[in-house]
Design goal:
The chain is mainly beta. The chain contains four helices and 15 strands. It is 10% helix and 29% strand. The relative contact order is 0.28. GO terms for molecular function: serine-type endopeptidase activity. This is Testisin.
Length: 228
């Protein structure tokens, strides 16, 4: 599956708070073995009927292009539009997580968006089973699509892109998050994260940066960080 990304036009601005905020896109280099974090309300086991009632997260390690291509024939390494993680038994995304964020965490309290959960595949060619040792997870590389996003929305790249000393001389803060209440989850033994999907606090304020007040946002550009 390629070009697995979409845009949503909102009828009203989002209500931002210290638990719901926009996230910028990370275009920095990704190395083999980098630790990235996926989040979602998907299934916790392959045979579950429903997804999770609360937000979960799991830390995943990136794979080389060669390893990813063993199980995912659509990968085009030179294109750079996808990121692969996996081969970690008990750690994976699952059905219901599609469209959710894959983020890079900076220090204790900030994150930027690397990818969008897309598809699972099995290295052996078998039907993928969530959390199995041979499963490879494929994510859409969000920053690859900035030119397309700009064309469709007229949003300047600088409003979307996270920059740091690792990929630019400019500086821009990624979305803050409270790590102390975010816990790693693994299939079968998932730890819960307090809170409900999309629920802010009573002191929420209406934030209207230009690209939100015009009713445009990128799918999954909202990163939900839980409060202690």
């Amino acid at each position: 599956m390629t070009n697995d990304i979409g845009l949503i036009q909102l009828t009203a601005p989002l209500i931002f708070s210290n638990t719901v905020m926009a996230i910028k896109l990370d275009s920095g280099r990704i190395s083999v073995g980098d630790a990235l974090t996926a989040q979602g309300w998907g299934k916790l086991a392959n045979n579950d009927t429903y997804g999770s009632a609360v937000l979960k997260e799991v830390q995943l390690s990136t794979l080389s292009h060669a390893t990813c291509a063993e199980g995912y024939k659509y990968l085009e390494p030179a294109k750079g539009d996808q990121v692969c993680t996996g081969l970690q038994e008990g750690k994976d995304t699952c059905r219901g997580d599609s469209g959710g964020p894959l983020v890079r965490v900076f220090g204790f309290a900030h994150a930027a968006l690397i990818g969008i959960t897309s598809v699972d595949t099995d290295r052996t060619g078998a039907t993928p089973v969530c959390g199995a040792a041979n499963v490879i997870s494929v994510f859409t590389r969000a920053a690859y699509f900035i030119p397309w996003i700009t064309t469709v929305t007229s949003i300047e790249p600088g409003e979307l892109l996270y920059t740091s000393s690792r990929n630019s001389s400019a500086s821009s803060s990624p979305s803050p998050m409270t790590r102390s209440s975010m816990t790693e989850s693994t299939y079968g033994t998932a730890s819960t994260v307090s809170g409900e999907p999309g629920v802010g606090d009573s002191a929420a304020s209406r934030a209207e940066p230009r690209w939100l007040s015009e009713g445009i946002m990128v799918l999954v550009l909202v990163y939900i960080a839980q409060r202690t």
